[in-house]
Amino acid sequence: MMLTANLNCKIDLQKVENAYNNQTKYNPNKFCGLIFRICAPKCTVTIHSTGSVIVLGVKSKKAGIRVIQKVCKYLERIDYKASITDVNVKTVTYAGVLPFNVNLNEVSMHFSKRCSYHPELFNGLRLKIPKTNGVMSIFHTGSFYVTGIKQKCIVNRIVGEIINEIESIHGNGKPKLVDESLLRNDNSHVVDDSSIADCINIQGSGEYIL
């Protein structure tokens, strides 16, 4: 998940880097922002001299606000008076794993009008989700990512519909399972209308690399 916010103060990024050089990275010749690494929860905060911040890698808005509050405390120690406003969720990435392998060639033919599959360039299939700005990336192992949709309830419904179509593509028999014990012993991995949400989680960790 990525959040943005405003700290309502001008910040000398070099001063912050000097004070917390073991947690920060600042190279104005390459990037105008300062990267502040937070350990708990593991995420990164990009701070700009204008006071705007970007939080990358948290799993909820509440966790993101706590991270920004932690950054404010760091800034208070070096004489900045920051106040948090304009907190907005910008993007959310959902990740999950289906309990079966996926034949991407067959899926690409079935969804030919709204998918992109070029295995020589990218080993996953990108599927546009109608009536949204969302994209679902599916891999042959059954793992998938959904981006461009903020509401998890919508993701649950859409993933459920796509799974039903993928199962129909495989025919009447069950798709090949990655591990048959997933269905026999761990009901949280059984993909049906009542448990589809169990295989979807908000993707957490993320870092900028300069």
From TrEMBL:
Organism of provenance: Leptotrombidium deliense
Highest taxon of source: Eukaryota
Name recorded for this polypeptide: TATA-box-binding protein-like protein
BP term (GO), one: DNA-templated transcription initiation
Coiled-coil regions listed: none
Family membership: Belongs to the TBP family.
Keywords: DNA-binding, Transcription
Pfam family, one: TBP
MF terms (GO), sorted A to Z: DNA binding
InterPro entries: TBP, TBP_dom_sf
Keyword DNA-binding listed: yes
